[in-house]
Specification:
The protein is built from ten helices and no strands. The protein is mostly helical and 262 residues long. Helix 1 packs across helix 7 and helix 3 packs parallel to helix 9.
Length: 262
């Protein structure tokens, strides 16, 4: 994360001090360090062979990313809390601006998102592109070579690590059958898992799930904001001057007029 929020994000993030931004960056680094091993374990269980890739589902990566977003969410919520004495405004910003920012960083850029998934698109277009339009086939290959968003970046990173660890030592020079098997394994994994969110309905479903998941953290930080508001109200009350003492020397609470004494 950059030291300054990107211009496309709401100005609310401009309220964060350099110290707060540095703290959020550190929290995100810790979240990433926890995310990568979780993704690697999932990949090791599914990317064993073609049958494994077909049997499993991209949703198996969801819990790891949900934990990843929780830690970032808490970092933003803690940093923004002192800036919003209005609890309603604070909660609204967490549910909107903060969640939107975290979600946007996970998904691929909108220019890569399609109505249909890349797996279906590839299956329908691969033969015509190869046979009649080589330039078009190169264009599709170039599109598939780009990682966009944290989902694609981190899954690709862990998949490459997996292939280097488990497939690399078994490679034999001149073994065309083995090389073809590895090529097909890599292609299927990327089309089905890495590029899962390039289908708009897949992303929409995950985004809805993510917002529902973070609602528990939202409730936690609302409670923290309510407690802070009570504490601030007590501090204000303690700072208010005491009312003047109107007790008279004779013990009466107010002076009596001459008419009152008659």
């Amino acid at each position: 994360m950059d030291s300054q929020p990107p211009a496309k994000y709401p100005d609310v993030f401009g309220l964060l001090s350099q110290k707060s931004l540095a703290k959020i960056k550190a929290v995100k680094s810790e979240a990433e360090a926890a995310l990568l091993p979780a993704l690697s374990r999932t990949i090791e269980s599914i990317a064993v062979n073609m049958d494994g890739l077909i049997e499993h589902d991209p949703s198996e990566f969801f819990p790891a990313f949900e934990r990843y977003t929780e830690r970032q969410y808490d970092g933003y919520a803690e940093g923004l809390l002192p800036h919003f004495p209005d609890v309603t405004r604070y909660v609204w910003l967490l549910a909107g601006d903060v969640t939107d920012r975290i979600s946007t960083e996970i998904r691929p850029e909108l220019k890569f998102v399609r109505k249909n998934g890349l797996l279906e698109e590839w299956a329908q277009s691969r033969r015509p592109l190869q046979d009649s339009d080589p330039e078009g086939w190169q264009e599709v290959s170039l599109d598939l070579s780009v990682s966009s968003g944290e989902w694609e970046t981190y899954i690709e990173r862990c998949f490459v690590r997996h292939m280097l660890k488990y497939a690399g030592p078994n490679r034999r020079l001149g073994d065309a059958e083995f090389e073809q098997e590895i090529e097909h394994l890599c292609m299927l994994f990327r089309l089905k898992y890495k590029f899962y969110f390039r289908r708009s309905t897949n992303w929409s479903g995950f985004d809805t799930r993510l917002r529902a998941h973070l609602s528990n953290r939202l409730a936690h930080w609302k409670a923290e904001a309510d407690k802070r508001a009570v504490s601030q109200a007590d501090d204000v009350a303690a700072d208010e001057p005491a009312p003047p003492d109107t007790t008279l020397p004779n013990g009466e609470n107010s002076p009596r007029t001459e008419a009152g004494r008659q």
